[in-house]
Amino acid sequence: MSEILPNYTLYVKNLNDRIKKEELKRSLYYLFSNYGKVVDIVALKTQKCRGQAFIIFSEIPFATLALKSLQDFNLFGKNMKISYAKTTSKAIKLANGFQTGDNRLNGVNGNGYEEEEFEGEVRAQPSTYVPETETSQNPPNRLLFIENLSEKASNKEQLEHLFKQYQGLLDIRLIESNTSIAFIEYETVNQAAVVREGLQGFKFLGNNLRISFAK
């Protein structure tokens, strides 16, 4: 099998298939958009395609950086396995000047992926992912998105010291390329809500924390 060359689209597998599709896509967006502009996220929930997703970047260097930085990253209790996708998305091909009727687009589905790209049969077309605006409020869930961390708080031990004061702390996930943000996961939605309420605006090592639900 020939080596897959770097391209705009990453193929992600070994995702937790118990997570609702929109929650999974939103969490993937928060993670991967730290490495560059994300054009689209495609995740199917059909039986043979569960636990897999495509992340489409606007530029290849962004995809490369995300692949190297997030390989084996633990998301919702499972380590992601990331590779370059075998097929360039239709969105990127069109952006590069190909026409919809071009033969080079033959064999791709509505999202621009060959059906054999997924480890299973593609039976449905997911809608294009549109991230929420900054003014929208996400529904309560177990995963918190922490922003405005100071450089002094950019290690797991410092964050654990603060967040373990609240019951139910499960996991702390840091982003190497952006030390001002982190994901904090709790056992229940109520526990996460208590933390969000209690530490919102809390001055931690020089910076006031901004906390939102990651969903």
How is this structure best described in words?
- There is one protein chain.
- The chain is α+β, with helices and mostly antiparallel strands.
- The chain folds into 2 domains: 9-93, 2-Layer Sandwich (Alpha-Beta Plaits); 143-213, RRM (RNA recognition motif) domain (Alpha-Beta Plaits), CATH 3.30.70.330.
- Helices cover 22% and strands 22% of the residues.
- The chain has 5 helices and 12 strands.
- The protein has helices spanning 21-32, 60-70, 90-95, 156-163, 189-199, and strands at 9-13, 38-43, 53-57, 74-75, 78-79, 81-84, 143-147, 169-174, 182-186, 203-204, 207-208, 210-213.
- The strands form 4 sheets. It has a 4-stranded antiparallel beta sheet with strand order 2-3-1-6, with helices on one face. A 4-stranded antiparallel beta sheet has the order 8-9-7-12, covered by helices on one side.
- A hairpin with a 7-residue loop joins strand 8 (169-174) and strand 9 (182-186).
- It is globular and about 45 Å long.
- The termini are far apart.
- 32% of the residues are buried.
- Residues 94-136 have low confidence and may be disordered.
- Belongs to the RRM U1 A/B'' family.
- One of its GO terms (molecular function) is RNA binding.
- One of its GO terms (cellular component) is small nuclear ribonucleoprotein complex.
- Keywords: mRNA processing, mRNA splicing, Nucleus, Repeat, Ribonucleoprotein, RNA-binding, Spliceosome.
- It comes from Conidiobolus coronatus (strain ATCC 28846 / CBS 209.66 / NRRL 28638).
